[in-house]
Design brief:
The protein is 52% helix and 11% strand. It starts with a strand and ends with a helix. The mean pLDDT is 95. It has eight helices and six strands, in the order ββααβαααβααββα.
Length: 183
């Protein structure tokens, strides 16, 4: 079943509405210094401010936090340290990593402070369905799990990832590909 995408630039948040934010949104809101596409930052930071003002509830999945931390540190390694540490694991054992990780931790704490962590138990997830969707090439496994979480807990998903076209959930985005694919 196709998802239903709403244009985030004109979306009106409601008090108490629960919105699960995808990893890419957190990377726009709290980017690694080595960079992230700046054109999306203003769209999603404005939307996040409107979400908070409307007293909607940002929701965090531990999967998303894990992806954020791993992607943040890889962006920094690729942008600033890859020539010094050809192997990522050597970077992770360095004092340079410790400095980057300290900054990353500040952002992660801000994310945790601004969100409610969802309370769906792992054994309630339909991991077999997520695996099937992944194996068919429809979606990344973690993304399929996020779709399942949104379905079961009646969350909307804020994302810029055009892979989120199927699953029967509501999407909030400024991504034109996703908006056109999921009217």
């Amino acid at each position: 079943m196709k998802n239903k995408a709403y244009d985030l630039s004109s979306y009106v948040f409601r008090s108490g509405e629960k919105i699960l934010l995808d990893t890419n949104i957190w990377l726009y809101l709290f980017p690694a210094p080595a960079g992230y596409p700046k054109k999306f930052v203003s769209h999603y930071s404005t939307a996040f401010a409107r979400l908070i003002k409307a007293k909607a509830q940002p929701v965090l999945s531990p999967i998303v936090l894990s992806e954020y931390l791993n992607r943040y540190i890889r962006i920094e390694w690729q942008g600033c340290y890859q020539t010094k540490y050809r192997d990522f694991k050597n970077f992770r054992k360095s004092t340079d990593f410790t400095q980057v990780a300290a900054s990353m931790k500040v952002f992660a704490q801000k994310i945790l402070q601004s969100c409610q962590v969802h309370d769906l138990a792992a054994n309630a997830l339909n991991l077999q369905q997520s695996l099937n969707e992944f194996v068919m090439g429809n979606i990344d496994f973690n993304d399929a799990v996020l779709v399942d979480i949104c379905k079961q807990l009646n969350f909307k998903l804020m994302t810029n990832d055009s892979d989120f076209q199927y699953g029967g959930i509501e999407i909030l985005t400024t991504n034109p590909t996703l908006l056109n694919a999921c009217p």
